[in-house]
Specification:
Elements: H1 2-7, H2 16-36, H3 41-48, H4 52-55, H5 57-69, H6 73-80, H7 82-102, H8 106-134, H9 140-168, H10 173-176, H11 178-192, H12 208-227, H13 237-259, H14 273-302, H15 308-332, H16 338-356, H17 365-391, H18 399-438, H19 448-478
């Protein structure tokens, strides 16, 4: 038998490059799609004969479905196998993308976007787990950098691509662009993505009660954060009821999960302090990345008069800077304390937000260039060290669950940031308008409408300045978590992944 085994040629390992390229295709496709639709909502609503409020469900439905899927990543991976599960998610996302392009009503499009969300919600955490396992511990900083190229740059590229498509083509192309990419990602997944030998089928069957609690709790919370400002928060009975549902269902689910022998969502990763504080920083990162990604395009278009495509061009330097900094940081991780890199990233991002607060309605693309460039550098310095350090001590058999939970935390941080900033934008604009209006004593021949237009424009600029300063302070406060991100060696509780 020994002679036979010795004579059997070893199965060649799949190239880490091919694995990385495969998961990057699926992940970037999902991330860009999450933001590419935003710039086309007005066009979609007008073409389908719907109000902008109804069209907003195209975005909300996708987010609701994706956040429900994220924490289930570990259980679903173990249930179906990594290759089958990831390929299935790519297939669902791709088919749903094609269906979105064929939609003839907002209701139909929202339904297809929910299907997209169920497929897309699992692509990011699964891709992160695959990349982290593919590279040896010494190269995990680079693995995180590769993942971050999609996770951080996608939100910036989405508006640029979406703006170009809306200005030069028809809105269904926003979804059809996913189809060839999805087909390529599917066949590459079947060919190159390995199934780890340590994966075991979940024990105890499907926890239907846990699934119901998780879906209702996370779904209700995401709805409240997404629609709270629109519905006047707690003046709406719907928001009040769903807030109660979110609290009760989530608390019940957490208690049940901690007591179950075979829980639906594995929360053991929180036994590591770096994972706890890493997730706190991920909340800040989600707040800053997606919060500023929301208010910057709004500010550029409403106050500075940029088109959708010009807005994408103005945001591009930040995306390119993030890509460059991630590659550099991925190599520096073995030589420099990750905490120093993270603190520097937080400081740079805070400075950029503060500088954006100095802009006014007369600023142009050139004035935006350096703050966006510095912000991009800072984001890369934060994301790579934090993600690498928080996942480093985890056994490989816990990575799928941990990345799903971490992705959910970052998404909820983003939703909190967007909810807080949109609420503050409305209230601060009103306060600034009232203060400015109180100082108007002479019209000097201008009409009431002209005066009111100038007041609204000035009040809006003041409100955006306030929001950018708030974001800067959030990044400064987050530095308090950095000392707790002490690098730790990876555990060896699971066998190495087979290639």
């Amino acid at each position: 038998m020994a002679a036979t085994l010795a004579a059997t040629p070893a199965r060649p390992a799949t190239s880490p490059f091919l694995i990385s390229l495969t998961v990057m295709l699926g992940m970037i496709m999902a991330i860009i799609d999450g933001t590419i639709v935003n710039v086309g909502l007005n066009t979609i609503a007008g073409t389908l004969g719907a109000s902008l409020d109804d069209a907003a469900w195209i975005v909300t439905g996708y987010l609701l479905a994706s956040v429900i899927t994220m924490p289930l990543n570990g259980w679903l991976t173990a249930k179906f196998g990594r290759k089958r599960f990831y390929a299935g998610c790519v297939a669902i996302f791709t088919i749903a993308s094609f269906l979105c392009g064929t939609a003839t009503s907002v209701g139909q499009l929202t339904f297809y976007r929910i299907l997209q969300g169920f497929g897309g919600g699992a692509l990011q955490p699964t891709a992160q787990a695959i990349l982290f396992e593919t590279f040896p511990p010494a190269q995990r900083g680079m693995a995180t950098a590769i993942f971050g190229l999609g996770a951080m740059i996608g939100p910036a590229l989405g508006p640029l691509i979406g703006g170009y498509i809306i200005d030069n083509a028809t809105w269904p192309l926003l979804f059809y662009v996913n189809v060839p990419i999805g087909i390529a990602a599917f066949f590459m997944t079947v060919a190159f993505i390995p199934d780890p030998s340590y994966l075991e089928k979940p024990k105890g069957g499907v926890d239907w009660l846990g699934l119901a609690l998780l879906s209702s709790g996370i779904g209700a919370l995401q709805y409240v954060l997404e629609r709270g400002q629109h519905d006047d928060w707690f003046d709406s009975s719907t928001i009040v009821i769903l807030s109660v549902v979110a609290v009760i269902a989530t608390a019940w689910f957490l208690i049940k999960t901690l007591r179950d022998r075979h829980p639906l969502v594995d929360l053991r990763a929180f036994r590591f302090p770096t994972f706890v504080f890493g997730n706190l920083l991920m909340i800040v990162l989600g707040f800053g990345l997606y919060g500023t990604a929301l208010i910057m395009p709004l500010f550029f278009q409403t106050s500075m008069g940029m088109t959708a495509y010009e807005t994408g061009v103005a945001l591009l330097p930040g995306a390119l800077a993030t890509a460059a900094s991630m590659v550099v940081v991925g190599r520096l991780m073995t030589r420099v304390d990750p905490r120093l890199l993270t603190a520097l990233g937080l400081l740079l991002t805070a400075w950029s937000c503060w500088s954006l607060g100095d802009l006014n309605q007369y600023a142009g693309v050139d004035d935006v260039f350096w703050p966006r460039l510095i912000q991009g550098l800072g984001m890369g310095l934060i994301f790579v060290p934090v993600t690498t350090v928080m996942l480093a001590p985890l056994p490989k058999n816990e990575l799928a669950s941990a990345t799903g939970v971490s992705m959910l935390v970052r998404q909820l941080g983003a939703s909190v940031g967007i909810a807080v900033l949109t609420t503050l934008l409305a209230s601060e604009t009103t306060i600034a308008w009232m203060a400015l209006a109180g100082g108007v004593t002479h019209s000097y021949g201008a009409s009431v409408n002209q005066i009111n237009g100038l007041l609204v424009q000035s009040a809006t600029v003041i409100a955006y300045s306030y929001l950018f300063r708030i974001c800067a302070l959030v990044f400064i406060v987050a530095i308090a978590f950095v000392p707790f991100m002490k690098p730790a060696k990876a555990t060896a509780a699971a066998p190495a992944m087979e290639m």
